[in-house]
């Protein structure tokens, strides 16, 4: 019956309400996230489109990222990102997992966002970020951008980023950055907040 009204928002609304989030309904997600019911419906429609099974796996992340970054190799970054979304650590991200993380990234407080970013950088999820972890993250980002897109990028740029990061963050000089060091430094330093925009554009 939607075909009788193909123009205007009525048909659009009907189409949206036809896409229902079955597992538990959208109401709990309206509570758990900072998205409206309507936004969740749109997100769910996109999610179901990409992942008809209702869960996302690592391959899905890799294929989506390779479309956004066709000139680089985004597989490593997509892998790290998937692990940050996969909060149950069982290889699949449900719609709920997905929108809770997305809400934090897009609509969370500054502290929420910083916590989320720290968890992304903390590759083995042991509560501290090592130089090796930060190096892997930086390389994955530079690989993703690709030499074709950024031909003048210096080979030592990732290392400089890591050195800079540790110089600012590792207050007690023990070689690892804890969440406390990370939050304290980020919240105080306007220039770090600025440089974190690099990540805004790739998450
Ligand atoms: C991971 O856990 C979720 C939620 O409990 C479940 O839906 C999914 O099937 C699990 N995935 C695997 C690979 O076990
Ligand atoms: C929603 O926004 C509030 C206020 O910024 C924040 O405290 C809360 O953690 C956010 N929740 C999510 C899941 O984004
Ligand atoms: Ca770690
Ligand atoms: Ca430290």
From TrEMBL:
User: Which Gene3D superfamilies does this UniProt record tie to the protein?
Assistant: EF-hand
Keyword match Metal-binding: yes
Q: Which SMART domains match?
A: EFh
UniProt lineage: Eukaryota, Metazoa, Chordata, Craniata, Vertebrata
Which key words are in the record? Calcium, Lipoprotein, Metal-binding, Myristate, Repeat
What name does the UniProt record give this protein? Potassium voltage-gated channel interacting protein 2
Signal peptide per UniProt: none
Location of the EF-hand domain: 73-108, 109-144, 157-192
In its UniProt record, a GO molecular function of this protein is: potassium channel regulator activity
Q: Which domain of life is it from?
A: Eukaryota
Any Pfam family the entry gives = EF-hand_8
Q: Which processes are annotated in GO (biological process)? A: regulation of potassium ion transmembrane transport
Sequence similarity:
Belongs to the recoverin family.
So what does this one do? May be involved in the calcium-dependent regulation of rhodopsin phosphorylation. Binds three calcium ions.
CDD domains hit by this protein: EFh
A single GO cellular-component term from the record reads: voltage-gated potassium channel complex
- Does this entry carry the keyword Metal-binding? yes
Which SUPFAM superfamilies does the UniProt entry name for this protein?
EF-hand
Species of provenance: Gasterosteus aculeatus aculeatus
């Amino acid at each position: 019956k939607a075909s009788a009204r193909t123009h205007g928002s009525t048909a659009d609304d009907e189409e949206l309400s036809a896409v229902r989030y079955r597992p538990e309904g959208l109401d709990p997600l309206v509570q758990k996230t900072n998205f409206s019911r309507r936004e969740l419906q749109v997100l769910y429609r996109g999610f179901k489109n990409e992942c008809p099974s209702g869960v996302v796996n690592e391959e899905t992340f890799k294929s989506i990222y390779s479309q956004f970054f066709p000139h680089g190799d985004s597989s490593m970054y997509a892998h790290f990102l998937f692990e940050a979304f996969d909060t149950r650590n069982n290889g699949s991200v449900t719609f709920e997992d997905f929108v809770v993380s997305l809400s934090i990234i897009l609509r969370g407080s500054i502290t929420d966002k910083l916590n989320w970013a720290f968890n992304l950088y903390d590759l083995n999820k042991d509560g501290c970020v090592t130089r090796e972890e930060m190096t892997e993250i930086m390389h994955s980002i530079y690989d993703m951008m690709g030499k074709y897109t950024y031909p003048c990028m210096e080979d030592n740029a990732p290392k400089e980023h890591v050195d800079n990061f540790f110089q600012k963050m590792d207050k007690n000089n023990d070689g690892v950055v804890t969440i406390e060091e990370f939050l304290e430094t980020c919240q105080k330093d306007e220039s770090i907040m600025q440089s974190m925009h690099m990540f805004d554009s790739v998450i």
